[in-house]
Design goal:
It is a single chain. The chain has 365 residues and is mainly α. It has 2 domains: 160 residues; 128 residues, no CATH class. Helix 1 packs antiparallel against helix 8 and helix 8 crosses helix 9. The longest helix is centred in the N-terminal third of the chain and has 94 residues. The radius of gyration is 59 Å and the shape is elongated.
Length: 365
């Protein structure tokens, strides 16, 4: 029958202590290796993260630089096109003004002659200048709805606004007698003035006034014709007669240039996405690959060592559990407790560990 630790002596205790010391050394070593593994794992993770971030940052920066370069050229081209369009519009505006001036020149001359004729007639016949006003003809020779509106507005001013102004803002006391008096004075003043002009101006110079009215109608028709010509010219979409071909050619060239730059930008971005970004990524990875490989190699070596120490810890732990702990108990699986058993054996000249345990349990130690 195979002997066990209980029948052993000092030599077996020393052997167990060596085994426990070896196990503790492996445990300490494994703890150190685990810490190193964790450090290396974190370092590798941070390094890979830094590489990924550098790739992303560099890729974005290079792409933004490409876009900025082409966008700058596009903006400059657009500004040039805008300046040319402004010049074209100014030139067109001048040409349109010249065209309007040319096509209305005869009408303007006729207008000038009619104005001069009106002034000459007024001077020759000694007719007051106010007889050549819209208000005069509306009040004394009305012919349409426009003149009727002038008459109504004049009556509102004379019979309502003026009396109310004097009654509420000029007269200190608001009495009905004052209002009646104001209306009386207003009617007498404006009515008298109207009758005076009607009898002493209108009736006296009726033929001259009718002649001036006829000229005024012609002047009004002249203005309408000129305005009609002006609107027709402004609505005319045909720019061929304004000599703007040089501007159109430049704008066409700039439009083609814009399309070319946009196509180049699109092609450059496609090339970047399909090729350049991978070159940048490979370059950054290659620059850091040696350091990363070294870290991974160290990590692999530590991992292997951990497996080796864990295997040895497992073997020693099982050996201790089977050969020693099962007999002595967990309590004596330490060098300190085993030293106590050694002292008991030597001091009492004992032969076996079993005897030493008996002494220990009796409380002698």
């Amino acid at each position: 029958m195979e002997s066990n630790i209980l029948s052993g002596g000092l030599e077996d205790i020393n052997k167990l202590k060596d085994t426990l010391t070896e196990l503790n050394d492996y445990i300490d070593r494994n703890d150190a290796l685990a810490a190193e593994e964790s450090r290396l794992e974190k370092t590798i993770k941070n390094k890979e993260k830094a590489i990924t971030e550098e790739i992303a940052g560099t890729t974005k920066k290079r792409k933004d630089e490409i876009e900025a370069t082409y966008d700058d050229q596009l903006e400059k081209t657009r500004l040039r096109a805008k300046k040319i369009r402004n010049k074209k519009e100014k030139s067109k505006s001048v040409k349109i003004s010249e065209r309007i001036e040319a096509e209305t020149a005869q009408l303007k001359e006729e207008y000038r002659q009619m104005v001069l004729e009106t002034k000459a007639v007024l001077k020759q016949k000694k007719v007051p200048a106010f007889c050549n006003t819209k208000l005069f003809y509306s009040l004394f020779l009305p012919t349409g709805m426009g003149d009727l509106a002038v008459i109504i507005l004049s009556l509102i001013i004379i019979l309502l606004i003026i009396p109310c102004f004097f009654y509420f803002y000029v007269i200190p006391d608001e009495k009905m007698i004052y209002l009646i008096l104001i209306y009386f004075i207003t009617v007498i003043f404006f009515g008298g003035a109207y009758m005076l002009i009607d009898n002493n101006v209108k009736d006296k110079h009726m033929q001259t006034i009718k002649r001036i009215y006829s000229i005024r109608v012609q002047i009004s028709d002249n203005k309408k014709k000129r305005e009609k010509i002006r609107k027709r010219i402004l609505k005319d979409k045909d720019e061929s007669q304004y000599g703007l071909d040089n501007f159109d050619q430049e704008l066409s060239e700039l439009d083609n240039e814009l399309k070319f730059i946009m196509d180049q930008k699109k092609e450059a971005l496609n090339t970047f996405e399909n090729n350049t970004r991978y070159v940048i990524s490979d370059e950054i990875k290659a620059r850091s690959q040696e350091e990363l490989n070294t870290l991974k190699k160290e990590y692999g070596e530590v991992y292997v060592k951990i497996k080796d120490t864990e295997e040895k810890i497992k073997v020693l732990s099982m050996e201790i559990a089977n050969k020693y702990e099962a007999y002595l108990g967990k309590e004596f699986m330490s060098v300190e407790k085993l030293n106590i058993l050694s002292d008991i054996i030597m001091e009492n000249d004992l032969k076996t560990i079993s005897e030493a345990l008996g002494y220990y349990k009796e409380g002698n130690y």
